[in-house]
Amino acid sequence: MRIKKFRFLTLFVLALAFLGAGAFCQEKEDRDWKWAGKVGFYRPDSYAWRDASSGTPKGVWWWLGIDYLANRTDGGDCLVTYEHKLVSQKLARMYALQGIYRHWAGSDEDGRQTWYYGAGVGLYFARVRRSGVWGSATRIGVPLVVGKKLGRRVFGELKYHAVLRKARGISLSGFSVGFGYWF
């Protein structure tokens, strides 16, 4: 009963976040891009998750991601983001589906916005196979992001994934850093 209640509450909060995004994201002119591809590194907070990545330096995982610009406002963007974090298909992996509001701030000498910060809500799907620690879990979390434009279509991004509940005693939270390309 407790699990059903938690699942319902999770779906309800996620639905409110995505529905409420429309209120914050009133239409504005589109940028010349709608999509972004990203690649980078992810470092889990949990030692158990890092141990699952024993073949990588200092417990760092690869991640790939894609952003879709759902809507633009005066000072920001509403994004839908999918990220895939991977050590090895045989050891551990994590997927994240996120809705993020990104606020543009800071301008260069030409008045163009060059850096951004934002937050959102996400669903994190994790799978670990390791002695004593294996299984699947779905958790809700809060992605916190800071990024900088490095060129017309290139950007760098730092993100903290604050996953709210542990999965089998393991925290799924962690930092990611990466680079992306808008297209």
List the domain count as a whole number. 1
pLDDT averaged residue by residue: 81
Low-confidence stretches: 26-30
Order of helices and strands: HEHEEEEEEE
What is the number of strand segments? 8
Radius of gyration in whole Å, from Cα?
A: 17 Å
What structural class is derived from the secondary structure elements?
alpha+beta
Give the name of the CATH architecture: Beta Barrel
Q: Strand portion, in percent?
A: over 45%
Gap from first CA to last CA: 46 Å
Shape field: globular
In DSSP terms, counting alpha (H) and pi (I) runs of 4 or more, how many helices?
2
Largest sheet: 8 strands, antiparallel, barrel
Strand order of the largest sheet: 1-2-3-4-5-6-7-8
Account of the 3D structure:
This protein is of the alpha+beta class and 183 residues long. The protein has one domain (2-182): Porin (Beta Barrel). Helices cover 15% and strands 57% of the residues. The protein has two helices and eight strands. It has an eight-stranded antiparallel barrel. The longest helix has 23 residues, at 2-24. The N and C termini lie far apart (46 Å).
Quick structural summary:
The protein has two helices and eight strands. The chain is of the alpha+beta class. It has an eight-stranded antiparallel barrel.
Strand-helix topology:
Blueprint: H1 2-24, E1 35-44, H2 47-51, E2 61-72, E3 76-88, E4 92-107, E5 113-130, E6 133-149, E7 154-163, E8 174-182
Antiparallel strand pairs: 1-2, 1-8, 2-3, 3-4, 4-5, 5-6, 6-7, 7-8
